[in-house]
Amino acid sequence: NAGVMQNPRHLVRRRGQEARLRCSPMKGHSHVYWYRQLPEEGLKFMVYLQKENIIDESGMPKERFSAEFPKEGPSILRIQQVVRGDSAAYFCASSPRTENIQYFGAGTRLSVL
Amino acid sequence: GEDVEQSLFLSVREGDSSVINCTYTDSSSTYLYWYKQEPGAGLQLLTYIFSNMDMKQDQRLTVLLNKKDKHLSLRIADTQTGDSAIYFCAESRSNFNKFYFGSGTKLNVKP
User: Fold this and answer.
1) Average pLDDT, chain B
2) Nearest beta carbon to residue B99 from set A98, A102, A106
């Protein structure tokens, strides 16, 4: 059973470009969570999704950021018009249902030049 | 202020015990977790404890929870160089939807 898969592992974008980060949850998991880790800091919750639904987006910046988890395919975190302050590691986690364990992927490290 | 706080660094010698501490503020915390992050890697769940427990032991790891003081600790017995990593404390609340993480404690194990 493969773990949570994130790609790409590293992503470089210039200011103003778009960044798309993908997350495939563990097999059988229908709940996906995105977190952001700024340098030297802990992880901060961004958004919680179930298939085709955003359940909690209280940690998402109001502009430029969006997330989806379609019926088929991976969850996507999309950042439009990236700025240098978006440089961070973005982690995805999944769980099979609302339970007490989240399994994390290896993260996507976004660098904005 | 931060919901979950940890000291930033800990240095121990190989073979000694390591104790990593964490404090949290929310009394509705239901589960508390310890994750390990090696350089460039994701988070590996080490152990977790339900909030109505005081202690949990798993091989070299011992978790102690003082709910009154909102204090959590992770003890690693016989620390090895492979234990060098950043250790994150995290908590979940009644809805489990989001975890709240500390800033991480960087453990350095000297040979």
Assistant:
1) 91
2) A102
A contact test, residue of B96, B100, B103, B105 with most A CBs within 10 A: B96
CB-defined contacts A:B, below 8 A = 60
Nearest to A42 among B45, B92, B102 (CB): B102
How high is the pLDDT of residue B89?
A: 95
**Which stretches of chain A drop beneath a pLDDT of 70?**
1, 98
Q: Which member of A4, A42, A48 has the closest CB to residue B98? A: A48
- Residue B110 phi, psi dihedral angles, 5° rounding: -90, 135
Rounded Cα distance, B27 and B12, in Å: 32
How far is the CA of B40 from the CAs of A10, B9, B70, in angstroms?
A: 10, 18, 31
The predicted-structure confidence for B40-78, as pLDDT tens digits, reads as follows: 888 999 999 998 889 999 999 999 999 999 999 999 999
Letter string b/e over residues A56-81, b meaning 16 or more CB atoms within 10 A of that residue's CB: ebebbeeeebebbbeeeebbbbebee
Interchain contact, B97 vs A91, CB within 8 Å: no
What does chain B come to in residues?
A: 111
Q: Which residue has the tokens 């992880």?
A: A43
* Inter-chain touch A102–B97, beta carbons under 8 Å: no
